[in-house]
Design brief:
With 160 residues, the protein is an alpha+beta fold. Helix content is 29%, strand content 12%. It has one domain (14-140). A 3-stranded antiparallel sheet has the order 1-2-3, with no helix packed on it. A two-stranded antiparallel ribbon has the order 4-5. The longest helix has 22 residues, at 119-140. The relative contact order is 0.12. Residues 115-122 and 156-160 have low confidence and may be disordered.
């Protein structure tokens, strides 16, 4: 059951960001919260950062939101920064950027939260490492010609 739902246009006005932060600060400790953005989450984000951190969000992810990107934070009031689940679209640029996820509650407890250890940052690091590895492999590829295969003694090299 969703107890309440509010919309804040933090792009249009820094005052809306301050109102959002005040509403988050007023939540009872332990209250589960889903914060999601659409259209433009990067403007005026400084006004809401500490409030998002109190829900388990991180400055690293919030500050990396692209212009006209998308962001979801599944958290709980009183969590440490990084213990919430943060998802963000890696690119932005238009109002159609979106991201989706599903949430499971068991006996009133949201599953997948707590000690998440910066899941978003780990996912970004893994994606970056994979891209680096792929680029390294591409840069190291050698086209083997008959001349390269001949080791000078008329023998083919042994490849294991």
């Amino acid at each position: 059951m969703i107890a309440t739902s509010k919309t804040y246009d933090v792009f249009g006005s820094a005052n809306n960001g301050a109102t959002m932060s005040a509403d988050i600060e007023a939540l009872a400790s332990g209250t589960y919260v889903c914060v999601l953005t659409f259209d433009e989450p990067s403007g005026n984000r400084g006004k809401v950062l500490s409030a998002l951190e109190s829900l388990g969000g991180t400055s690293e992810v919030v500050n990396s939101l692209p212009y006209r990107g998308a962001y979801i934070l599944l958290g709980r009031k009183g969590m440490k920064p990084g213990d919430g689940l943060e998802l963000r679209a890696p690119t932005g640029g238009d109002g159609t950027a979106h991201i989706s996820t599903s949430v499971e509650f068991v006996n009133g407890v949201m599953m997948g939260l707590g000690a998440a250890g910066g899941v978003m940052m780990k996912a970004d690091a893994n994606a970056s490492a994979i891209t680096t590895l792929q680029n390294t492999v591409k840069n190291r590829e050698i086209i083997l010609t008959p001349e390269l295969l001949d080791n000078g003694a008329g023998k083919q090299p042994c490849v294991q």
